[in-house]
Amino acid sequence: MRNGSHLLEQIGNTPLVKLEKACADLPGIEIWVKLEYFNPGGSVKDRPGYNIIREGEASGRLGPGKTILDATSGNTGIAYAMIGAAKGYPVKLCLPANASDERKIILKAYGAELVLTDPGAGSDGAFRKVREIYAADPDHYFYADQYNNDANWRAHFETTAPEIIAQSEGRVTHFVALLGTTGTFVGTSRRLKRDLPGVECWSAQPSTPLHGVEGTKHLPTSIVPGIIDDKVADGNLWIDTEECYAMARKLGREEGLLLGISAAGNVAAARRVGEQLVKQGRKGVIVTIGCDGAAKYLREDFWHETELAATT
Asked: Is 92 a catalytic residue?
């Protein structure tokens, strides 16, 4: 149990749990998931959101009278909105209009101002809009710029990776994560590789430009985040949206674990790595990120696919 303290001090130290069935058919393979929905804002993005704001305050760029501004697909925005409410900062966010209704409701509940952008342009459209808003009145805003702010990846270098090392007792052999801002993958991988030489780090991306995995990027057709580090990945996996949906259903129905779409995609990617290891006659302790829970996605039709198929 976490000790009682200020809300924002509860960010981090999330559980690392072993999946029992997702890799039961893969001898010598363990898949562990870091359950980031235990953060107070409900996702892994609490970590970079809090670090970006703290570094903004320390640098003097963020203080009384400033509004926190950024582009988001949802979860980082929720982190900003929660932290802004706790610290007394207004928050203004640009996000695609097709972000889940639940995300928008949560953001408004925290008091954030939303600027909805062209859904067809995805997170890139929100990024272009936020730069336009900032350029028009830079003195009014603290532009957090999660895609290009080193405080993003440093949050994971300083917290996520050390927690994984400690919780796995140094047994982790592989780390896997889908790319969005790339902060989770870059920061965690850099620290793992520094402290546990020999750990392999595999990135993953949606297989097509148009996909249903909120918070992730198909980088060949997207604005590439400035914090990306191509050298840190030992390889990249291409994940289909349907693969993420199927894994989300499987985890809920067989593991009792309701994860969001990108989190389920991370598990699907981890399983792919496990399959490769088995073919090579190798064992592995694979760790991935449960970015958020399923609560923000429960209206999606894919949860009912089995029932729909049975009635047609």
From this structure: no
